[in-house]
Amino acid sequence: MHTQDFDRSKHVYKNDAFIELVKDAVHFFNGTPVHTLPPPEIFFGVGVYAIYYTGQNPTYKKYSELNRLSYDFPIYVGKAVPSGWRQSRISHSEDNSSTELFSRLRRHSNNIVAVENINLEDFKCRFVIFESDGSDMISTIEALLIKLNRPLWNSALDGFGNHDPGKGRYEQANSDWDVIHKGRAFAEKLKCIPKPKDIILNNIKKHLDTLKKT
Amino acid sequence: MHTQDFDRSKHVYKNDAFIELVKDAVHFFNGTPVHTLPPPEIFFGVGVYAIYYTGQNPTYKKYSELNRLSYDFPIYVGKAVPSGWRQSRISHSEDNSSTELFSRLRRHSNNIVAVENINLEDFKCRFVIFESDGSDMISTIEALLIKLNRPLWNSALDGFGNHDPGKGRYEQANSDWDVIHKGRAFAEKLKCIPKPKDIILNNIKKHLDTLKKT
């Protein structure tokens, strides 16, 4: 077998229908019911979710204004993919008996409860479940929701989704999120010097100034 | 605003056309030219790639047989997404002037050259570039290629894609890949006890026994 001459154009994939399909999924997402965080019932499935803030914390006041009439501006977007998905170890039947999406939302709730100056009752969530082959869409839809909404906790304020790095890995700094929201047990074990709070608050302000109702 | 009663079915997204579209992209992928690793020319773009092995290392001999007539069985599948993609900080114009996909393939080449018992000339690669909004497909196509092909280095032999964890984070074990392929500088700094080689070799054998031409 010989390899061919190099021609970049032979490697470029184009398909406009894909863009339309993805927009359809985003449209569906934006029409799903809004629930408390975590949702009131445990449920099966994997998928994509958005978290909305409507409380009175001065740092995030802008989100209360943006979401006054409808939940249009998430503060965080995330996904729950089947465990073992990266290694393709899982069958679809397992996805459907996983409560990974609900568990993710509950873990976020616990993180919010653990910290200062935000209250769980000021958060709401929205989510879409993708079943069987549809679960291949999850990363795409999450990426697009982040790109469209630029949620603060996915962009200018990193760290909400972080895990405990574990024993022997505490020689790092607190995330920006943990500087603003003190209280997570693992964050208190981290030994290095984080970004100064005033710089982080300034980044938040700059980011929120870019978000506007259209 | 009040939240609604919980009804799981309102959150399930279904779209069969999506599945067809993704299959079209995979079909395109499988028809792209095969090149040396790294490809002979530097090029712009982000996307998805597969790496094929056709050498004589006894551990991987099965891949030589599977790929004898055509490159159907990758040993590794990966993606190069725009830098800052997770944080949605990037504009599409930046994707198109990034050489991230080529750089990724070159980095893999360097890793192969650094280690024992595999030779760079026994590897080939295939890749597809996704431009502008199409880059939203990258994660989906990568996931599907992994699911369809179950490449050994994505599943039973973890670690090929690992980076140097950096100062203060060496208190971990070598990946399975680094046990089988000694030589990466960062791997030699890791302090914990890795999985025994005979167990890893047995996992490889079991995995390769599941791969069959259809």
Give a description of the structure.
Chain A has 214 residues and is α+β, with helices and mostly antiparallel strands. Helices cover 33% and strands 12% of the residues of chain A. Chain A has seven helices and five strands. Chain A has a four-stranded antiparallel sheet. Chain A is globular, with a radius of gyration of 19 Å. The mean pLDDT of chain A is 89. β5 of chain A pairs parallel with β1 of chain B, so a sheet runs across the interface.
Key structural traits:
homodimer; 214 residues; alpha+beta; four-stranded antiparallel beta sheet; 7 helices
Can you summarize this structure?
The first copy, chain A, contains seven helices and five strands, in the order βαββαβααβααα. The first copy, chain A, is of the alpha+beta class and 214 residues long.
Return the average pLDDT of chain A rounded to an integer.
89
The dominant shape of chain A is: globular
Gap from first CA to last CA of chain A: 55 Å
- Oligomeric status of the shown chains? homodimer
Q: Would you identify the regions of chain A where 5 or more consecutive residues have pLDDT less than 50? A: none
- The helix count of chain A comes to 7
The succession of helices and strands of chain A, N to C, reads EHEEHEHHEHHH
Give the C-alpha Rg of chain A: 19 Å
